[in-house]
Amino acid sequence: MNTLLSVEDLTVEFKVSNGKFKAPDGVSFKILENECVGMVGESGSGKSVTALAIMGLVPKPQGKIVKGRIIFEGKDLLKFNNHPRGTKISMVFQNPLNSLNPNMKIGKQLSEVLEQHYGMSYKEAIGKVTAMMKQLGIPEPEEMIERYPFEYSGGMRQRAMIAMAMLCHPKLLIADEPTTALDVTIQAQIIQLFKKLKLESKTSIFFISHDLSVVSQIADRVIVMYAGKICEISKTEEIFEKPLHPYTAGLISSIPDMKERKTKLRSIEGSVPSLIDPPAGCRFHPRCSQKMPLCMEKEPDDFSVNDRIVKCWLYKGVYQ
Q1: Is 130 inside a domain boundary?
Q2: From residue 115, how far is each of 92, 123, 128, 160, 168 by CA, in Å?
Q3: SS3 state of residue 306
Q4: What is the spatial distance between Cα 254 and Cα 213, in angstroms, rounded to a whole number?
Q5: Which of 10, 124, 215, 245 is the right S-S partner for 68, CB 3.0 to 4.6 Å?
Q6: Which residue spans within the chain are E strands per DSSP?
Q7: What is the pLDDT of residues 264-283, one digit of tens each?
């Protein structure tokens, strides 16, 4: 498959009251055509900012891209004045209630996408909106377009946001924590919906979540982030069969096993470091049970392990 998106050495810097920090910090990865790539990591690791950078929506003036390239269909989006936001690249945001206008009916909000991008009349646009809502499993779309966001359930609001993102048939759909705050049953329905979109629309998906078990249900490959850095990039099945990075192993071991009775859930000892003053060397070393002196002195290189990427000194001299 051809590469649709290539992120190269992307670094975003933020100014805060007590200093500066970078997240993401020098991240590189690719998304292929008709591929779903999942990105996981704890809060503050830079997942959502990576998505905003791709969309050209890094908040200013406090944030700015200081390094890197974002190549989409052969063009660097950071040097491209006419960003394909909303047409070729769309995004489903984390909280649909905050993303929708509470004073405007759902149908009008969605139709504006087609009116703005393609100059359609309201009548023509609302017909396509109704068809898309029906395709995404929203019942009685002719009636639902006349309702306001507060009249939708959480799952239905998320479906409406996905419908809005898919109206222009984008080549890349970015989903930022799309199942957060939804109950398990609705989560499963939304995940199935993304699978259907990938299969039927041939849309590539960049799926962001803090929950590795959710990402495992949809992603072809997984990117694991920690404190602004990428730790590991692997195919989904490989990352669960044999995690390479100690942080990845810790994340997987902390997933509850419903077949095994435990009195206490496993967790990774310690806490995420401050990105204003990150630790020298590997950023995970203060919490790592396998750390070596080198880990505290120098940032790890990217090592290739059977077509997998891992950023850990444990693989120095073993796979190069």
Answers
A1: no
A2: 19, 10, 11, 17, 11
A3: coil
A4: 10
A5: 10
A6: 3-16, 19-32, 36-40, 63-72, 75-76, 89-92, 172-176, 204-209, 221-226, 229-235, 303-305, 308-310
A7: 778 898 999 999 999 999 99
Q: Which pTM value belongs to this model?
A: 0.94
Residue 207 has φ and ψ, to the nearest 5°, of -105, 115
- Number of domains making up the chain: 1
Q: Which domain holds residue 23?
A: 3-88+168-257+266-315
In Å, how far are 19, 57, 64, 88, 181 from 61, measured between CA atoms?
14, 11, 7, 26, 30
Give me the CATH number covering residue 223: 3.40.50.300
Does residue 223 lie in a domain region?
A: yes
pLDDT tens readout for residues 132-183: 999 999 999 999 999 999 999 999 999 999 999 999 999 999 999 998 878 8
Question: What is the helix (H) or strand (E) element at residue 241, kind and residue range?
Answer: helix 236-241
Residue 150 falls inside a structural domain: no
Fill in the amino acid letter for 133.
M
Half-sphere exposure (CA, 13 Å, Cβ side) for 216? 12
Amino acid identity for residue 147 in this structure: R
Task: Please report whether residue 157 resides in a domain.
Answer: no
Q: Residues 302, 290: contact at Cβ < 8 Å?
A: no
Q: What share of the chain is helix, strand, coil (3-state, %, to 5)?
A: 35, 25, 40
